[in-house]
Design goal:
single chain, two-stranded antiparallel ribbon, 9 helices, about 0% strand, globular
Amino acid sequence: MSLGAIVRHYLNHFHKLHEDELLWFQNQSSLEEALRIAGEAQDDAGHRYSHQRRVKSQAIREATRRLADSHDEIRRCSSFHDLWNLLVLRLSPIEGIGELYIYDTALRIGAHLRLPPQKVYLHAGTRIGARELGLVPASDGSKRWLEPQELPTLLRDLAPSDVENLLCIYKDRLSRSN
């Protein structure tokens, strides 16, 4: 599958779902509520998102508590990157909380605060996709994000959160030949 075909498939099958998720978080009645449901990784039906299904309940509870305790700091964030850095600082010490949970939680809270990502943040799945496209060397597990100008031309018109989503979903179908 060419990169162009992958982008078209993503836009036809996943983009709207992604937009709907962000809109649901954006429309939460308060930051407190957005922090609670983002921390609990709850979708609009009250179920845990599949991305966080393996995270233990104890880790989810502790992360949700730390988000609530960080309310004022979160409110003061002026960019997604500030928010993401704050969540890395507050949540990564919790056993069982990894890069994907932190990114997804920052994305959901950022939607409420209207702070979209301006970079493509890397975690396990997106890092694999980025490696397959030759954007990250196989030996480099330390790169935390990609700047938009580092992306192939076909991906530059997508929002960074869509690129993150695409890299993760299609990680096994991407290759340097794209």
